[in-house]
Design a protein that fits this description.
Structural class: alpha+beta
Number of helices: 14
Oligomer: single chain
CATH superfamily of the largest domain: Glycoside hydrolase 144 (GH144)
Strand content: 5-15%
Length: 448
């Protein structure tokens, strides 16, 4: 009898267990299906949220295509190239950042290489002269003493190749490195590798000496700050615009720069002359770096790589605020970082910084409104990329701002008093050349 009861009970237990298992299976399948649906929908929701953070401007124009330069534009290009003819050291092939100042940062050096590449594209130098200049410059870059035997120092004497500070004072131990500047230097080195195979091996030797892994960590860019004899310190480097620009080429080296490359990671929109302008949301007081909204990084991204969809939208807003300021004030406006011909010799002309529009500041955030400049390179860069009636006017406004002796383009014209900003420098003349090369052939770094 007991055995019979146990058999019956066992049958009931099996039946109940089967029901539990069945319900459990149904619950598990439904849960997994639900999770799968959520996972499938998450990218769409994320994309929608990101698009809402930066809605498309209804007045965003179509981009113009390449066209041959006019005779006048060819003359402008020859004038820009004259700066490099007059300011290249014959022994090293490197170019002074400013006329009469035989020093250059890695950003300045990258600009000079870009100028040489643009000059070749525009037929301003023949192949033999190009090869000689490029070979000499790359040989020198391959010999530069490295900061900490790891990466190029921030600045060098173009005559001796010795490490200096930004005042061109000797700095035997160096002053650190800049990830953003090295990202810029990688632009011409990549163009050389793709379009000038005769110099590819020399360009490879330049990069092969670098400990490039130190430039990126946790998806962000890192520089080394060791100025003024202080303890060397790694610092997160780059803000909106500049950060994404440098990340474009650092990513080609296999570095993890996904946070730096994302223009929405630290995006904040601020209203300037009726335009919602993109700026970086990181607090300078907390993070120790100023948030400059300038034309330069957006112009360089367009001229050299071609804009991504998001970069194009942000660039348009930065440009439109400047056009709207002109509409409001009647003052031609094209602002960016620039050399100036008086102390402190370098300033950031901004659309927005420090919580205010249209500030001109030093790298320490000190305001110098009297040095606001209509920038020659910003005028040429915006015109090359957009070619609107306003950019056409800007180029006409700066067309006379050049050295009567044929030494190149001045940096611009001061708003206060209207006098020329007579700084003759590599960056201004390089961007003019890049802009004219872009008009003729489109983005300069094309993998074809």
């Amino acid at each position: 009898m007991e055995d019979s009861n146990w058999v019956k009970a066992r049958s009931s237990i099996v039946w109940i267990a089967a029901i539990v298992v069945a319900f459990g299976a149904v619950w598990w399948i439904e849960r997994q299906t639900g999770l799968e649906l959520v996972d499938r929908q998450a990218p769409a929701r994320q994309a929608a949220a990101r698009a809402a953070a930066l809605p498309a401007s209804p007045d965003l124009p179509a981009l113009p295509g390449p066209r041959p330069l006019t005779e006048r534009e060819q003359q402008w290009a020859r004038l820009a190239w004259s700066y490099f003819e007059h300011n290249t050291d014959a022994r090293t092939g490197l170019v002074s950042a400013v006329q009469g100042f035989p020093s250059a940062s890695l950003w300045d050096t990258a600009s000079s290489l870009m100028a040489l590449l643009a000059a070749r594209d525009l037929g301003l130098v023949d192949q033999n002269a190009f090869d000689q200049r490029m070979a000499r410059a790359l040989d020198s870059l391959g010999k530069l003493p490295l900061y900490g035997d790891a990466l190029p120092n921030k600045s060098y004497d173009v005559r001796t190749l010795q490490m200096t500070d930004y005042r061109n004072q000797p700095a035997p131990a160096g002053t650190g490195w800049s990830a953003v500047d090295l990202g810029r230097l990688l632009v011409p080195l990549n163009i050389i590798a793709w379009h000038h195979p005769r110099h590819t091996e020399a360009a490879r030797r330049v990069i092969a000496r670098w400990n490039a892994a130190q430039l990126a960590r946790d998806g962000q860019l890192w520089g080394m700050q060791a100025a003024d004899g202080g303890t060397p310190q790694l610092v997160q480097e780059g803000r909106l615009g500049y950060e994404q620009y440098a990340a474009r080429t650092l990513a080609l080296m296999g570095l993890d720069v996904d946070v730096a490359a994302d223009p929405l990671a630290h995006l904040r929109l601020v209203e300037v002359d009726g335009v919602q302008v993109p700026t970086d949301d990181r607090d300078p007081q907390q993070h120790g770096a100023q948030n400059y909204v300038t034309s330069e990084p957006w112009i360089l991204q367009g001229l050299e790589f071609g804009w991504t969809r998001q970069a194009r939208e942000m660039a348009w807003r930065v440009y439109r605020a400047q056009e709207q300021r002109f509409r409001r004030t009647g003052v031609p406006t094209a602002v960016t970082e620039d050399h100036v011909d008086q102390p402190p010799y370098f300033v950031y002309g901004t659309v927005w910084t420090g919580g205010q529009p249209w500030q001109v500041v030093t790298d320490r955030g000190e305001a110098l409104p009297q040095l606001r400049t209509l920038s020659t390179k910003a005028a040429f860069g915006w015109h090359a990329l957009l070619r609107t009636p306003y950019t056409t006017q800007l180029v006409e406004d700066v067309a006379g701002l050049n050295d009567p002796g044929g030494g190149g383009w001045y940096a611009g014209r001061y708003e206060a008093g209207g006098k020329p900003n007579q700084s003759l420098n590599a960056n201004t003349n390089a961007v003019v050349l890049e802009s004219l090369a872009y008009i003729a052939r489109g983005p300069l770094l094309q993998f074809r």
